Amino acid sequence: xxxxxxxxxxxxxxxxxxxxxxxxxxxxxxxxxxxxxxxxxxxxxxxxxxxxxxxxxxxxxxxxxxxxxxxxxxxxxxxxxxxxxxxxxxxxxxxxxxxxxxxxxxxxxxxxxxxxxxxxxxxxxxxxxxxxxxxxxxxxxxxxxxxxxxxxxxxxxxxxxxxxxxxxxxxxxxxxxxxxxxxxxxxxxxxxxxxxxxxxxxxxxxxxxxxxxxxxxxxxxxxxxxxxxxxxxxxxxxxxxxxxxxxxxxxxxxxxxxxxxxxxxxxxxxxxxxxxxxxxxxxxxxxxxxxxxxxxxxxxxxxxxxxxxxxxxxxxxxxxxxxxxxxxxxxxxxxxxxxxxxxxxxxxxxxxxxxxxxxxxxxxxxxxxxxxxxxxxxxxxxxxxxxxxxxxxxxxxxxxxxxxxxxxxxxxxxxxxxxxxxxxxxxxxxxxxxxxxxxxxxxxxxxxxxxxxxxxxxxxxxxxxxxxxxxxxxxxxxxxxxxxxxxxxxxxxxxxxxxxxxxxxxxxxxxxxxxxxxxxxxxxxxx
Length: 527
Prior knowledge:
Structural class: mainly alpha
Largest sheet: 2 strands, antiparallel
Helix content: 40-55%
Strand order of the largest sheet: 1-2
Order of helices and strands: HHHHHHHEEHHHHEHHHEHEEHHHHHHH
Radius of gyration: 23 Å
Oligomer: single chain
Distance between the termini: 36 Å
Number of helices: 22
Mean pLDDT: 91
């Protein structure tokens, strides 16, 4: 595991303190790590966020190398030209995600180490840094578990703690169910602590400066934490290990939003905003993921999503997608059931819609969204629906849709590109018509409505969450064409581990290798 441990044991990224609380000053937080001899909790806090940035901000490698040939195909958030073995989990995709996650994990472990070395007085003063960093860390860890299952966790990223001794730093695997248990236990404690915490006056400005997610706003961290708990509790709610606990804690959160507030409007979203496209935090790479030479087909719209949006007259349609050059004013998605030669012809002749370039690939200010009001409202919808409170469920559902529409209008408005002229913001009447077409009252299977809205809302922006919720709710359903010669003929239910783990961490890998199949369901995937 030499290659892997080097990644997990990277020295701390150190940052210089800034006086401004603006995220636009992010570059000022950093010095060259090779020239840094020491760090602090405050600096390491932003270093932790920076360590996870590749998994939060839209980037070339995550979009093109990792998601394009995997999740985007499984759930058809984009269209593609069919090819052989297109359901085999690619080594590059799994390796890249693995590396990026452990970069962030290593930074968090260094933060934890620094915090544990403080005096009791210093720990009390800087407690907010550790608590909020844990929320982000658990968010990213939950996604990793939902992708791979068992992963190295408790002992991972401790090369620095182990004094650089590689022989002590080969990390064992933790069981997925144990990781979820530990995170849910701690998030519950964190939620209670955030409810009562007071940030010391001498720390407020520092926290505002170093926090590039919520700008030091404690109420937003409370809402992010509670929404993350809710997401994770629902994720595991059908499993025998968590069913009873999930029922109790979900009710506790939702029925007592005074103590456990949730983000219910877009101004309460937790996200990393982009203010300077030339900084170290930038979404510029999104363009190459969609439009680089030789990848002209990487931003094609899929038929299933386009058809759903067309039929219901979804106001988000012209903000998420743009018409093909020769589309005759009709949004059309690529049909995956067609032969690849026919798909190529359609894609080349300009009739197939693509992801809106001014909203996505040429938008230098596309943020990295961690938790949105739409997601929180849809979790509320599921709760009220299952409780039989259809009035409250309908209200939450409609709020979720409205916030999603507003979000995509806002995302387009941030762009300084006008390749595709901005559509007119939807009127209240158009939104009302869309909600009527969704037909909440007349639909017997409310979960299908909820699942479809999650799929559309998450699309390319939060692909891992989209796939996880589709596996949990078993909707929408997808069919991907395969050939008789294909090695894998069904859509994966999880990813296989990267080959570097087999090569460099073999002894620990052997303990989990029997589960290392893309057909092995995760413990929570029981429906």
